[in-house]
Amino acid sequence: MFHSKSLKVALLLGCLAPAVASLAQDGRPPQVYPAGIRGGSEVEPGQGVQIRHYTFQPTGEQLPYSVFVSSKVRKDKPAPLIIALRGFTGTTLTFVRGTAVDLAETGGYILVGAIGYNNRAGFGVQTPPRPAPATAGANAAAIPPPPPMPRQLPPMVGGNAETDPAKVTAYSEQDVMTVLDMVRKEFNIDDRRIYLVGHSQGGGGARHIAEKYSEIWAGVAMLAPALFNVQLTRDSKITKIPLLLAVGEQDTLIDSIRAFSAQLDGLKVKHEFIVKPGLDHGTIIMGAEPEVFRFFGRHVKPVSR
């Protein structure tokens, strides 16, 4: 198994305390999962998980991706595949760990985590600039705003040769599709059972990639997706794909995700919308995995869409 240099740095830092694997990536308190849910590390691959690298042709860099292959996968039988997209500052292991690996093993899946060029990039969706803070009256400008609370981000993982935001965004999408193509060539994949799941930034990216490459996916799950001014129409291709939206009841994104679900309802698009009690923006990743795998298990892509 191979690790990028930045992943090794994160691993060394993680060895400082036994509980680090359960810490949120910005150093918040340990995450608390529902009974029966296993978290797992986003830094050190678990049993049966490989971190691989390939040469990304546009920049010549070595980009990582993670792979778990169920012991039930056989060369002579097409296997279902899940492509997973991490959230902002996540890793290729964001989904390829813990309960997700347990369920992939039981269900006979190949589970793959793409980095999306690097762990800041948006899988084809460029994050809009943050709006300026509102002022309270004419004299508000004379009072300097309080300094923002410092947030220590995890190390950069993936490519850094390209820094132009537009190109990085495009490369992020290209990396996902390149990894998908490599996996389809390496394994005997069931073309009617290829699924896409993403969290937060990766959830927004999953929406974009599902819309752009709608002919591929048998189902798409978006966990606490970051959806910026997304407006669907009856012609939106993603509305033809089975969709699952899941969010923790303690997540600040819940209203925007509920609004996206309402858009789907308005277009009479059948989809599943789940609010998980007691979960937040981080714990939804593993906490919703039982629902994600049950959802994928119910959907096979039609012969023609």
CATH superfamily: Alpha/Beta hydrolase fold, catalytic domain
Distance between the termini: 39 Å
Strand numbers in spatial order across the main sheet: 1-2-4-3-5-6-7-8
Q: In percent, how much strand structure appears in the residues?
A: 15-25%
Round the Cα radius of gyration to an integer and report it.
Answer: 19 Å
Describe the structure.
It contains 7 helices and 8 strands; from the N terminus they run αβββαβαβαββαβαα. The protein has an 8-stranded mixed beta sheet, with helices on both faces. It is of the alpha/beta class and 305 residues long. The N terminus is likely disordered. Helix 5 links the parallel strand 7 and strand 8. It has a single domain, classed as Rossmann fold, CATH 3.40.50.1820.
Features:
305 residues; Rossmann fold; 7 helices; 8 strands; disordered N terminus
Write the layout of secondary structure elements.
Elements: H1 5-14, E1 49-56, E2 61-69, E3 79-85, H2 98-107, E4 110-114, H3 165-186, E5 189-199, H4 201-212, E6 219-223, E7 243-248, H5 254-266, E8 271-276, H6 284-287, H7 289-297
Parallel strand pairs: 3-4, 3-5, 5-6, 6-7, 7-8
Antiparallel strand pairs: 1-2, 2-4
Quick take:
The chain is of the alpha/beta class and 305 residues long. It contains 7 helices and 8 strands; from the N terminus they run αβββαβαβαββαβαα. The chain has one domain (5-127, 154-297): Rossmann fold (3-Layer(aba) Sandwich).
